[in-house]
Amino acid sequence: MYFEVPDSIGPAGSVQFLHLESEDHRVIVQVLARIIRTSSISDIVTGESVGLAMEFMPASSEGRTGLERLVRHVVELGLRHESHIDHRFDVDVSGVHHGDRTSLQHLSVKKLTLETDWRANVGDSMLLQIRSPHAGAQSVPLQGQVTSVDPAEDGYRVEVRITGLSEVEETVPQIAIPAEKRDKEVSMFTDLITHPVEDFHLPAPQHLSGLLSRIKLPTILGLMEMERMSGELRFNAYEKSELVLYVCAGKPVDMIDVSDNSKAPRDLLSQLMGWNEGEFHFVVEEIDREDRLGTSMTSLILDLARAEDEATQDIDINISESADFF
């Protein structure tokens, strides 16, 4: 996704926590995203700004589902406002006499444009099957009526008003389409032009970085497990020793304090949970180390969260016991 912001929020490779909201405020998603490219933009009206190309990095299956729901909802909003889709979908035509070539040029919920090597007549009714070229995408069956026919370079340009789904039994074109039926059409169009996130893969990131004040440790660890990453996750903070967590295919295997090799990995992780400030840097590389943690990332996150809750409760108890009452 591309954003334009007034000031830089970090270099390429840095991870940010985004709060995304649809235009009608009905769908809200919070998701991690990695900056993959930045650019400087000069505008005579708005002045200097920064362009950001960002890759979404949901840290859980729930985050991925929420992101899919947002994308789908935004597409549906566009379709309801008569947005045109300029992708070259495949189309089959029946119900009228036609020639060998029919291609779909423009598509929206209310109308479409065909280029043909055969002449249609204004008023003709036709049945259309719209298919996405993407594997696994479903088709949308429609019925329509020709509203205009004009000469084109290699034949004819045919405008067709969509009168409904082809499963509708009425032969008379519908002038007013009920709201529930229109919702179904919008949903079918959305199915046509959106595809599961799993069908699209960017190259694995080679470097990630960010601020612990913005992205908490459990979120970072969840991302490592979700993406099955391997490499060194380094943590730095002012007046603190550098800590390194080694991750292999999303599983934590070891952790060290670069200035003190005597500390146990779990003690270091507990120590890290108390860091509210600092930076993290992740570099992708092969990891070949003894597994000194012996746990999955999910179990580790739960253990750390439990330990933090217990520590918080202990602090509350100590404060209560030391308080003077009058």
Write the layout of secondary structure elements.
Layout: E1 2-5, E2 15-21, E3 28-43, E4 47-56, H1 61-80, E5 90-94, E6 102-107, E7 111-116, E8 125-131, E9 139-152, E10 155-165, H2 179-193, E11 207-211, H3 217-226, E12 231-236, E13 243-248, E14 251-257, H4 265-273, E15 279-284, H5 297-322
Antiparallel strand pairs: 1-4, 2-3, 3-4, 5-8, 6-7, 7-10, 8-9, 9-10, 11-15, 12-13, 12-15, 13-14
Helix pairs in contact: 1-2, 3-5
Structure report:
By secondary structure, this protein is α+β, with helices and mostly antiparallel strands. The chain folds into three domains: 2-81, SH3 type barrels; 90-197, Thrombin, subunit H (Beta Barrel), CATH 2.40.10.220; 207-313, no CATH class. Helices cover 25% and strands 36% of the residues. It contains five helices and 15 strands. It has helices at 61-80, 179-193, 217-226, 265-273, 297-322; strands spanning 2-5, 15-21, 28-43, 47-56, 90-94, 102-107, 111-116, 125-131, 139-152, 155-165, 207-211, 231-236, 243-248, 251-257, 279-284. Strands 5-8-9-10-7-6 form a six-stranded antiparallel beta sheet. A five-stranded antiparallel beta sheet has the order 11-15-12-13-14, covered by helices on one side. A hairpin with a 7-residue loop joins strand 8 and strand 9. It is elongated and about 85 Å long.
